[in-house]
Amino acid sequence: MSNKSPYSPGTGTYGEVITQPRIFTFGQPPNEFVLESGQRLGPIDIVYETYGTLNADRSNAILIVHALTMDHHAAGKNAPADKAPGWWDDLIGPGKPFDTNRFYMICSNVLGGCRGTTGPTSLNPTTGKPFGMDFPVYTIKDMVRVQRELIRHLGIDHLLLVAGGSMGGMQVLEWGVTFPEMMDGLMPIATSGRMTAQNIAFNEIMRQTIMLDPAWNRGDYYPGTGPAAGLSIARMLGMVTYRSDELFTARFGRRMTNHYPEAYYNFENRFEIESYLHYQGEKLVERFDANTYILLCKAMDLHDIGRGHGGYEAALASIQAQTYFIGVDSDWLYPPLYMVEMAEIMKKAKGQAEYWELKSPHGHDAFLIEFEKMRPVVASYVQELARKRGL
Amino acid sequence: MSNKSPYSPGTGTYGEVITQPRIFTFGQPPNEFVLESGQRLGPIDIVYETYGTLNADRSNAILIVHALTMDHHAAGKNAPADKAPGWWDDLIGPGKPFDTNRFYMICSNVLGGCRGTTGPTSLNPTTGKPFGMDFPVYTIKDMVRVQRELIRHLGIDHLLLVAGGSMGGMQVLEWGVTFPEMMDGLMPIATSGRMTAQNIAFNEIMRQTIMLDPAWNRGDYYPGTGPAAGLSIARMLGMVTYRSDELFTARFGRRMTNHYPEAYYNFENRFEIESYLHYQGEKLVERFDANTYILLCKAMDLHDIGRGHGGYEAALASIQAQTYFIGVDSDWLYPPLYMVEMAEIMKKAKGQAEYWELKSPHGHDAFLIEFEKMRPVVASYVQELARKRGL
């Protein structure tokens, strides 16, 4: 059974369902949203999609939170001609782990995003021009607090589960410490409770690379595409950190695009790994904004669940939800050891934590790839939460 | 005993000895040096230093080969005012593992370098201007073949040992497969027999970053300093790969340079790890040339001891020297597993190989830092070689 195999006909799949993003707007002046920094921002648009139906007692909602370059479009297609469905379509749909026959799934583009939610590409109401780098510094906690507004707007005051990987996992954990009574379960995947110095280092190098591109122009490049070359190189670095040495060796080895011996010493002759990274870089540029990338990376750098919660251990001890950590053995960007550590701190504090390790050569990105391995595990955890909630 | 402690007075230390780089020139037209690619290059200057005295039967010579941004100045000072001695001074000197009372140490700046040996900053005899990016693509094997010319010039046809780390270790291995009968010992440290796809990926990202800087100007920036910002960012990335997550966490953690709470959300407020990397980047720019960096990285990418030797395993099997591999447990750029693998392939082929693991949190760069741990091990191996040679 391949990752892309069709699901049994008749049950339907979100892969063929047309989903419609919606917008919720809040924080109209003078009632702007107050960021963690104290800065005021508003109005804020938040773009989101939902899959499935909210039940009568509003107890079956699951919030999915996305990673750095993903968005609110987690499942289905927005138009029949879309080449691919949403980024977690393999997990979301009728009969899938996030079963849309039973659960009401919500996914929104994060604060500071570039897919419709207010961010650096949005118009700054005080200037009438896009914010660019005047967009305020925000945090993972701000993303979560904005999602809280959306949930309230949807008439929901309790979530069955919050789940996501990477930057999504950071939001999951921040949900757990900021609104500890609001959910039954948390599923942080391939993530950490606080960015390490090495994590910050990679982000700073990516930011500097974007800002080195003259087309960045201090963030003032709209309506142009901006620093395409810089963003592309940043993405190349990101991709290396999202995969593994083992995977690259297996997939590309030392093969060159032009493998004639006489081309070996040609400076322009790329190794296949180089071609692959250039392709990935160019692909991101088509769909992502550079200032947004810079500030999202900054938000990640500021990620530390201990801040405002008495430190890292106290924050973890304050989590009330049943937490299911998923680490990836080959993930060297957010090494499993930190997830194991978090689960152990929680257990010592009498919290409900479990850790499961996804065995995969794919590195950090395995949570977007290894659906066959994840499905039974995710399904069983979601069903356990549902059973406990009487769903 | 600290790494920087003075040695016993009276024995002298290279830290206080004034060493004088010398130049050997060869490959005068029409007898240019023929690169592996078939391109001709000449004349070639090779800058080198020697420490100690060549014995009567010319049997006590040890060749030290350097890493990416190092040079021929491995020990002593070139002037009394020099702040620090050469890069391996802690290992080279009277009574040290590379004992200059007993051995004749040689270290040269590699082909393509920027410290005096012919490279991109040298004048192209056909144009009268610096080569820049017109400098031909060369390889690790070319570096080694140029060193062979120097050794011949010094009247030496056998080396007791060739030793070096990182790109130096690549040269060590290339020496072993290109001139298998020319040495008693090889000491490759924190290196590999062929660059992996991930290694190449990091190099390509560094090259692209330098080339993104408008001051690079397709390599035509002399006599200016050129793409300082791009080279600095490349070095920042290099430094991350040379150290470890563990080290950065211990040394910098999540501390910010301005640690007042109100500065936390300031985009310009750097984490200490960011400051450190920027400092390292700026420091490299003062002493290194960008085109040289680009082409040295390309030479590394082409590194594969199997090329021209019937493949990786056959190449290792052809090594005749007693080989002492040193890996660093926290080195994720050139993971120890590849060094273990090389030692095992050699042993299966009845070669003389040993592997020793340096335990250190310092990552790849440990071979430039952990001198206390390395000294006894290196000394004992060198003494064994000397004893066998009757020195």
UniProtKB/TrEMBL annotation, chains A, B:
Keyword annotations of the record: Acyltransferase, Amino-acid biosynthesis, Cytoplasm, Methionine biosynthesis, Transferase
Listed GO MF terms: homoserine O-acetyltransferase activity
Presence of the UniProt keyword Amino-acid biosynthesis in the record: yes
Domain AB hydrolase-1: from-to ranges: 61-368
Listed pathway(s): Amino-acid biosynthesis; L-methionine biosynthesis via de novo pathway; O-acetyl-L-homoserine from L-homoserine: step 1/1
Domain of life: Bacteria
EC number: 2.3.1.31
Catalytic activity: L-homoserine + acetyl-CoA = O-acetyl-L-homoserine + CoA
Positions of the catalytic residues: 166, 331, 364
Residues the entry annotates as binding substrate: 235, 365
Enzyme class: transferase
InterPro entries reported for this sequence: AB_hydrolase_1, AB_hydrolase_fold, HAT_MetX-like
GO BP, one annotated term: homoserine metabolic process
Claim: Cytoplasm is one of the keywords in the record: yes
Gene Ontology cellular component annotations, sorted alphabetically: cytoplasm
Principal subcellular localization: cytoplasm
Compartments where located: Cytoplasm
Pfam families: Abhydrolase_1
Record-linked NCBIfam families: homoserO_Ac_trn, PRK00175.1
Subunit structure: Homodimer.
Function comment: Transfers an acetyl group from acetyl-CoA to L-homoserine, forming acetyl-L-homoserine.
Family per record: Belongs to the AB hydrolase superfamily. MetX family.
Protein name: Homoserine O-acetyltransferase
Source species of the chain: Heliobacterium mobile (Heliobacillus mobilis)
Gene: metXA
